[in-house]
Amino acid sequence: MQEITNKIYYVGVNDRNKTLFEGLWPLPYGVSYNSYLIDDEKVCLIDTVEVDFFTQFIEHIHEVIGDRPVDYLVVNHMEPDHSGSIALIKKYYPHIQIIGNKKTFQMMEGFYGIQDGTVEVKNGDSIELGSHTLNFVLTPMVHWPETMVTLCGSVLFSGDAFGCFGALNGGIIDEQINCDAFWLEMIRYYSNIVGKYGTPVQNALKKLEGVKLDYICATHGPVWHQYIDKVVAEYDRMSKYETEPGLVICYGTMYGNTERAAEVIARAASEAGVKNIVMYNVSKTHHSYIIRDVFRYKGLIVGAPTYNTALYHEMWASKAVSEIARWNEEKLHYEPVGEPVEIKQSLTPETKAACEALGRAMAERLKG
User: Fold this and answer.
1) Which stretches of the chain are DSSP H helices?
2) What local confidence, expressed as pLDDT, does residue 319 receive?
């Protein structure tokens, strides 16, 4: 197992078999479940892995410490992809002390029936391992109520924060890896799983302001070292809901007429100066990729046919336009741009002109 720095080791595993993360999000590049081991006077494990990988996980721990016992287990996050091996770890190391906060242990009892051998910590508490000191920072709702992060000198064990989809192909630390595939997977991970919790993420970032970080050890994806500034800046940007210039056009289409309208809008926006335009047929592209790009780009145009007097199922006729407007007013809160286009049956010269006007209006707003 690889030593990250100063007797801190990576003992995680890769999952290249699961097709949907949490039964929802496609995993074209797999996913890692990261766990870390601190070898000191007291041996401390930081988070566990999904229970299906327990045998491999124990082998990794043994590779570092042999038959020595693990004294502590820090649980930064209780989702089962990280906590799933807790019950087995406790049987394997019956004297282990489990470190978490009050909400951690409420969930632990519910998931695994564990009530004893726990050490409760509050925000700002610390525990000595020998030459390493653990400092605990509670970060509720990033993205569960019990989430926290653990500092060990200049190393941050961040739980799901700063994580991303994608298995680790040999290398563990970012400087050992071609990270090109991870950047968009980080945005897709954040936008679909953490995206609605922008304010808690900002609160967590404020708690870590001024802390010198040499390594960020998340529970998914690479250990960040070379790209720490970029990763933190990306989370800061996304949690502020800041975007880059560009336009997402997503549509449902049954017989191609809505798609033709979307093409007209895209062409008009392009001719008016918008370069970053992505188009999605919602029946063909998984919604996690669409949500990713909605987080990336400033503009969004949606279109859908009417289906059984309501919205086309794969989207979220006089009916479709009013339903989209209602969704925006009640849930999305986007700034309306231009005039909505209502098309009956197929494009006419008048509705084509209206589509072009909508594309130009969006382009002007994006450039403004």
Assistant:
1) 54-65, 80-83, 86-92, 102-112, 180-189, 198-207, 228-239, 257-271, 287-296, 319-327, 349-367
2) 55
